Amino acid sequence: MKKKKGYFFRKKMTFFAFVLPGAIYMTVMIILPILSNIIMSFQDVNLMNFASGDTHFIGLAMYQDIFRDKVMWTSIWNTLWFTLWCLIFQFPIGFAMAMFFSKDFKGSRFLRGINVIAWMIPMVAVSGIFKYMFNSDIGIINRILLDLHIIKTPVEWLAHGNTAMASIIAANVWKGVPFNMILLATALTTVPADVYESASIDGANQIQRFFYITVPLLKPAIISVLTLGFIYTFKVFDLVYVMTGGGPGSSTEMLSTLAYRYSFNEYNFSQGAAVANVLFVLLMLVGVFYIRIVTKEDEEI
Amino acid sequence: MKKKRLAAMLLAGLMTLSVIGCGSSGQTQTPDNSSSENSSAENNAATQSENDISGEQTTIQMWYHISPDQAAVLLSMIDEFQTLHPDIKVETQSVAFAEIKKQLSIGVAANQLPDVTLCDTVDNVSFAAMGAAVDITEEVEAWGEIDNYYDAPRSSAVYEDRYYGVPYYSNCLAIMYNKDIFDEMGLAYPTSEWTWDEFKDLVAKTTTPDHYGLTMSLIKSEEGTFNVLPFICQAGANWDSLNSDGAKEALTMINDFYQNGYMSKELISMTQADMCASLFATGKSAMMVAGSWLNTNIQNENPDLNYDVVLFPTNKSATSLIGGGNIMMMKDDHKAAAWELMKFLSSKENSLKYCEDAGYISPRTDAVAESSVWQDDPILSVYTKQLAEAMPRGPHPKWPEISSALQFAYQDVLSGTSSVEDALNKAAAEIEEIK
Fold it and tell me: What tens-digit pLDDT sequence spans chain B (435 residues)?
């Protein structure tokens, strides 16, 4: 009896020993900051009362405040618009490249490896380089377009709302494609070759094989790539911060840059926290959606 | 106390949440100042009557946000100060220029502040309104030297008729012009009595396919405000009257320059250092709205550039805005020692020495009067004249929000999202709410 109790006790302790470090890390590094951010968004913390600690709970007033400001809606719209177009471009291009590089030709692995470099370069560096590339006076993009006679006069990419948005989408797609490619290419290697063989014996053509074999078999990977890509793109910060600073005006203002501006340029900490929480909730919805689909897939399998 | 800790944690949490991946956090560690906390009471007594506890040192901390080259002279002065005052030990901590306000705000919440710090002139009253900067009115009045300061820098340290700082270095904007371009085009150089009409005329005339007429920062940050607001002030308006005709006249002029291609469209996202390097220093712009510190940048980029500087053109006035830094006292634990240091650094001799070396102008008129550099140097002497006609930005404790409203106004106008009239009316309404 006694021995058995000791065994269970030990087993329990082992369980805690494994869980505890993770739990502590999660609590201190993730849960506490998120909680305090949520608390702060229900207060009126700004630079003036921040020192004295003379802050008050004001309920939802801060949220009413931010949603009354047009710039908040612009930011939500911009963030969605940006994410949508990034996914529309980077997913098919990444998929096509994954299909291409999974063909076993000479140097395919090496070339695939090279492509990943784009993904490894820090975002700040990418943003800085693209900012110069899109420069209207000295940028290479205008130079190429002018030399090819596609445009007659230089385009001021970052000086107008629509072209600035297009520029940051282009930069983000460039960086996002390898991420899509590498995940999908890895998934492609798990599709057994004999499935394709039997399909071609049955007379399926290339297109049929793609839609009836590749896509269904890659479905879990496709869902992961799309949702991760969505989350990754939705919380874009450094790219926008460096390339346009959210401007001109608020034409490329994202939720993340708006939260930063409220908190650290205007020192309205609660206002920034409220915007960050809106971003958090929106991403949470996507996360829940993702987890539900993944568990459903698992059950089906 | 506990509440402050909590607030610091909240802020830290917020920072991690919203700045993930932003690699520029730099020197963010708040220095450990346990040594000064331990014995603050005795130390305070020690400075007031040095003989009581002989041999014991008061340790005070100072933060500064100036670049390492500029800090060399400051640090040597602090060494000299410590030799003169063996009972005071000064610990210094360098903070990145763009970070100092954030670091001080975090320091306020965490109760980890330096005794003395440098800060940007516009932020002095913010810290005063926060209750973070120490009221040093009595000390300043007893010192009796504040009347020697230029009005604009001096008023940047005043909040509700009390002093919360002492100006440390000043600068202001004026117009730099490329002499070669004017020579090539057979145009006479602008003179200090020029008007807005002449200015507009020259900006248009000096624009050719090879170079722009004018360069000024129109970026969505304080730098843009710093460049745009002088014109609004020259037209007789200011930040609190953005819906007036003067403000509209000024923004219309800037917008015309921009839309007519007299200025590069890239200026909408360029800092002053960027625009100086890529446009003015390389001869791609005939004129530039520029501060004296950009001299150093030009020397580094293109020492052969043949340029000069002239006062702003006159509309209702030819005013400029000041920039620069103030010294604030952030803790009164060692008030006597901290004030001693502030006085030492602000003395006429030291102000002169530091500002000359760092390429700024001394906020002290008596120091400027004695300096051959600010009186005779062809470029700096113009800035000295411009400083006498300059005014501070604000001062207002919520300046960042006011500035932000103005930034949206000119960016919306320049990018074609909004008309001058609408943008300024909107900004004026927002500022009215902030006030």
Answer: 444 554 454 444 444 444 333 333 333 344 444 333 334 444 444 444 444 445 678 999 999 998 887 889 999 999 999 999 999 999 999 998 878 888 888 888 778 899 999 999 999 998 998 888 999 999 999 999 999 999 999 999 999 999 999 999 998 999 999 999 999 999 999 998 899 999 999 999 999 999 999 999 999 989 999 999 999 999 999 999 999 999 999 999 999 999 999 999 989 988 898 899 989 999 999 999 999 888 888 888 899 999 999 999 999 999 999 999 999 999 888 999 999 999 999 999 999 999 988 888 999 999 999 888 888 888 889 999 999 889 999 889 889 889 999 999 999 999 988 999 999 999 999 999 888
Name residue A217's amino acid.
L
Distance from CA of A2 to the nearest CA of B (A): 46
Per CATH, the number for B172-321+395-434 is: 3.40.190.10
Q: Please, are residues A217 and A301 in contact by the beta-carbon 8 Å criterion? A: no
Any chain B CB within 8 A of the CB of A33?
yes
Q: Which residue of B has its CA nearest to A36?
A: B10
What residues 107-166 of chain A have any CB closer than 8 A to a CB of chain B? 122-124, 131, 135-138, 156, 158-161
Distance set, CA A119 to CA A167, A240, B239 (Å): 18, 17, 45
Cβ atoms within 10 Å, residue B149: 22
What CATH number should be reported for the domain whose range is A70-300?
1.10.3720.10
B87 within 8 A of B57, measured Cβ to Cβ = yes
- What pTM was estimated for this model as a whole? 0.81
Helices (H), B215-312: 222-234, 245-259, 272-275, 294-301
Six token digits for residue B392 = 């501070």
Residue B237 region by backbone torsions, left for phi larger than 0, else alpha for psi between -120 and 50, else beta:
beta
Q: Enter the tokens of residue B205.
A: 């005339």
Tell me the CATH number for domain B57-171+323-391: 3.40.190.10
Domain boundaries along the sequence of chain B: 57-171+323-391, 172-321+395-434
Domain boundaries, chain A: 70-300
